Structure formats: structure tokens, C-alpha cells
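Feature request, filed as a ticket because there's no other form

It would be nice if the structure record came with a short human-readable summary line next to the C-alpha cells. Right now we just get the raw output. Example of a typical job, pasted below so the devs can see what we mean:
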Amino acid sequence: MALSFDLRSLAVFVAVVDHGGFSAAARARHVAQSAVSQTIANLERRLDTPLFYRQDRRIDLTPEGEVLLQHARRLLEHAEAAELAVSELKGLVKGEVRIGIPSMLGSYYLPPLLMGFKSSYPGIRLTVIEAGARRLQRLISERELDLGIIVDDHTSTPMERYPLLREEMVVCVQREHPFAERESIRPEDFFNEPLVLFQEGYFHREFVDTMARRLDVTPDIAFQSNLIPLTKAIVRQGFGITTFLRRVVDEPELTAVPFSPSTWLTLSLAWRPSGYLSRAERAFIDYTIGQRDAL
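Raw output as currently delivered:
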């Protein structure tokens, strides 16, 4: 038997799942709860199967509901892409680009790029989301984020990408630290010092953890912080050392010393491998590629 679904019913169904109940879904969609309940009842009647288990004011998806949810999300996403594509054919441009950036890159590498894009496309709103590199990859692959800057390595989630820059990871120490006089520092010596590190999920921390596993050592982590100014302050006061991309270590009281052997990371602009990209998103990708040499 052929079934037809209207997108409004599917959107209500997804809202009930995402908001955890009929009342919350009704508030989110600005409709009466009775309207949500009736929509779900009609959907279940047409499918001749229950979509939710209802007990003790809680709802859970039935196996049939789980299957429908996967297809409903896909259909709604395609419908949104189709609407956007038609709108752009009439000369409209999506008004927002959401890009995820690790904090170290957002603070020291990308402000000129973001400001330059905004100057070239003043009608497009840029939303910058700060998160760890692995979380950004997950958000992109799950279609919760349009674009992101990632560390390109063999563990990266499959996605479209364009290499932007190659930067050296260096040891960051206070100017008076004995390491400041060295030409390079072995990883073994680095791990003999108290360390100030980002929390797990950031490429900065992943870089150190990977080195530690390779050497079979346990890092002496004195402080954990995702705040770059705080990390620098701790290093300046001599309570530990850390590692940064070279450009981040750019102040008189700190010294950047290369690892031995030197270590370089490739940073790439990434986006999901399939799916519709708006004109705004494509404009950002094209602009970024054109500005790569200026980064």
C-alpha cells in the first residue's frame, strides 16, 4: 500500500522526539498541545502502528517510530535544501554561515579572514562556534554545522576539505626556563616537566596524548584549561610548560622552541561530503580558498 506523508506531520513528529514530549513540542512550534496530539494520532492511524510508548508522562519511540524518525529527518532536510535552492534561483541568499573553529585558531589565525569575508559580503551573518576539533568533525558529519576548521590527519571523519595552512607545534616556556636556550626539545624531555594542557577533545590535547602513548609515558598534568590567556599566564609564572601552534607564542615573556624532530599540523576547511551548500556557504569556501596565502 502506497503511503504519502505531508511534511508538516513529519515536522511535528520530529519535534515531539527532539523536545521529549507533546507539551514541549507544542510550545516550540507555537501551537496547542491538542493539535500536536491529533497530528501524531493521525500519523499513527495512517501507518496503522503506534510510534510512541506512552507511560508515566514519558514517551519513548517504538521500533517503528525509530525507523520513521530516520526517514523523517532525511525528508525534512531535503525539503529545506529544495526550498533554499529555489529561493536562490530567485536571487535570494541564505543569510547565515555557521563555522566551527577551535579556540587557538579563532583567536590567532582567522580574525582577518572572517572580517575580510564580512566586508566582502555584508549581507551574510557569520556565526562562529568554538569547540574541540573532534567535536567539530562530529557536528559537521551530523549536519549540525555547515563548515569547520579541522586538523587533517588519518583519524579525521570522511568529509570534503581544503588545506588552508601548515603550522608547527612548538613547546611554549617562560623566558627564564632552561628550555628557552635550547634549539629544540625532545618529547622525552618535554614530558619530564609539569604540563598545562587543554581538556580532552581539543587537537592541542590530542597532540600531547598521542606523543605520550607513543613514548609510553604518563604526562604530569599540573593544570587543565581551554583558556589560552590563562594557560599563558600559568606558563609565564613558571608553574608548567605547554605546547601551542607557533603563532600563538608571540609575546616577550614566552619562548617558542621546536620539538625534535619538528612537528607540523595541516589545518583544513571542511564541510560535509554530501548535501546542499547555499550560495553563502559556497561564497565563504571560495573566499577562504582565495585568501589561503594570506593566512
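Something like this underneath would help us a lot:
The beta strands are 52-55, 58-61, 96-101, 125-130, 147-151, 160-174, 195-197, 221-224, 242-245, 254-271.
The first helix runs from residue 7 to 19.
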